TrEMBL record:
Keywords: Membrane, Transmembrane, Transmembrane helix. This is Peptidase. It comes from Maritimibacter fusiformis. It comes from the Bacteria. The chain crosses the membrane at residues 30-49, 56-74.
Amino acid sequence: MSRYEQELKWLAFALGMGSTIALVQDWGPWPMFLGLPFCLLWIYFAWLHGERQLKYINILFSGLYVYGIARYLLGT
């Protein structure tokens, strides 16, 4: 995976931008669908190694995204 790390950083950037645009444009659940893989990439690569709390913040956000996506898919 580290072989593709630079490409995955660009993918994470695109997902983050897409999530932000979806949030601003009020495009339903798309911020969650785009934000979850963004957070998972950050967790996996642990970018910004000097900022360990950032990994735990992304774990927290991932849990919230999974919860929100599950609520959306279950229609509650």
